[in-house]
Amino acid sequence: MATFVKAAGTGTGATTGGNGTAAAGASTAAPVKDPSNAAILNQDFYNYIFIILASLVVALTIWRVLIEVTKYVRTTSCLNNERQAYFAIPSSKFASLKKHFFINWSGPLATVCKEVRNRTGILSVVNMVPLFIMAARNNPLMKWLNLSFDTFNLLHRWQGRIVVIEAVAHTAAWMVATVSTKGWAGVQASINTSPLIMWGLVGTVAFVFISIQASSILRHAFYETFKYLHIASAILAIIAVWYHLKIAGVPQIMLVYGVVAIWVAERTLRIVTLIYRNVGSGGSKTLVEALPGNACRVTIDMARPWTFKPGQHAYLYMPSIGLFQSHPFSVAWSEEAEKLDNEKLAMNRLEVLEMRKTTMSFIIRARTGFTAKLCKKAEASPDGKFYTKCFAEGPYGGMHMMHSYGTVMLFAGGVGITHQVPHVRDLVAGYANGTVAARKIVLVWIIQSPEHLEWIRPWMTSILAMDQRRESLRIMLFISRPRSTKEIHSPSATVQMFPGRPNIETLIDMEMENQIGAMGVTVCGSGALSDDVRSAVRKRQHAGNLDFIEEAFSW
């Protein structure tokens, strides 16, 4: 056991990104970084820097050699050539390169500022289109490109920074030109008397405010406040840009209409989906139960059948907890059953579906704001449970199925187990009926206390009772902060419990020794856990066919 378990009680708890996020694991003890791994990563970083700089030097050297060779050939060829007609004809591509890149253009300050102002203004408006597409939950590019919302969220943030920089440059170019001719008094007069300038400045200020309040520190510290201010500031920016372009009478205003259309269409689709999923047949019904370890279980009886895939998440609205808030959570368990109160005989497929109900369950770990309020209410309720109204929007995600891998390792930290449990059930069922390639399924779950096992006990009991489970599934539980050794006991050879934190590299090596087919390694947990698993998989790319899949949700 000592070969693949790190010492217990040597670290502090680490939290993940997300206020009850869809795929982020809850707090687990942060794995101790291996100094040798850190040294390797640092060395790799310096190697990449060296390669980039060396490539730049080589490219500049080649460019310089070509220029000098051209000059030499031109000189020797024209020594006895009076007309030199060949060299008088320009190369169209090289001429364009010199015109637009190498030859600095200088002109009157007002002219230069006008060109900069116009170009940056157009670019800022044009880039607002992909900016709003990347922010949408129903972005079609996610399915087409097989990229997660987390990836597009990152792209959205960087695209937003580009838009802000271009808007500031647009305003600055106008301001420099005005100061050079009329002074700062002219700038003030233009702002006070010209609606065109006034609305343009309002738009720029709104963009700058968004960039400040969307910084990582403020966003993570005050997420719910950030969200409201972010939406309000974006609406103000759009209104200001629309007025600015309308008064200017420029064709770029059509792009603003496009931005508004994208936003309205996406919001409308979300509302329609929300109504369809939760209205009808008496509506959805929700039970919230307090769990050990500062968590709660939310079980929703949906109004309509819901087709669920492993790895999907849904946004939950609970008006009694947060009136206008919605938060993403992984669907930890989903079941379908016939409605007991329906005595109607089904005559077609639609009526068959209407006679079935879908029950979805979520595990929510208390953080701050919405999740803290929800768990506190559950703890204070009689018997630790209460019924409330909840609306589920989705499903989203579920792009990374593990069916094609002969060997599957699923790592989970804390509440990140909610993402992995549906995969385990899906793979064990597929193994039994011969619909997946998986032959070895290993679940590694790292938790701080044995009481966290209660989060998924009923679902794990169902999985352990599945057909051919013993032949396909092994479960390894690591308790990072056990109160005593008496808490650590292994129920069977296929369900084992260990104190401390796992040695990720050793665990992967053990499975690779008897690897069947390609190996899929997926992780859902803290950033430290994800980094450790990613590093281990990366270093073994030439030792076996391994794929790494990280499930996370940043905001």
From TrEMBL:
In terms of domain of life, where is this protein from? Eukaryota
Keyword annotations for this protein, in alphabetical order, are: Cell membrane, Electron transport, Ion transport, Membrane, Oxidoreductase, Transmembrane, Transmembrane helix, Transport
CC per GO annotation = plasma membrane
Localization, per the record, is: Cell membrane
Q: Which reaction does it catalyse?
A: 2 a Fe(II)-siderophore + NADP(+) + H(+) = 2 a Fe(III)-siderophore + NADPH
* GO MF: ferric-chelate reductase (NADPH) activity
What PROSITE patterns does UniProt report for this protein, alphabetically?
A: FAD_FR
FAD-binding FR-type domain boundaries: 261-402
Q: How does it sit in the membrane?
A: Multi-pass membrane protein
Enzyme Commission code = 1.16.1.9
In the UniProt record, the signal sequence range is none
Major location category of this protein: membrane
Where are the bilayer-spanning segments? 45-67, 162-184, 196-218, 225-243
GO BP, one annotated term: iron ion transport
| Pfam families from the UniProt entry | FAD_binding_8, Ferric_reduct, NAD_binding_6
State the family it belongs to.
Answer: Belongs to the ferric reductase (FRE) family.
- Supply the name of the protein: ferric-chelate reductase (NADPH)
Q: Which source organism does the UniProt entry give? A: Glarea lozoyensis (strain ATCC 74030 / MF5533)
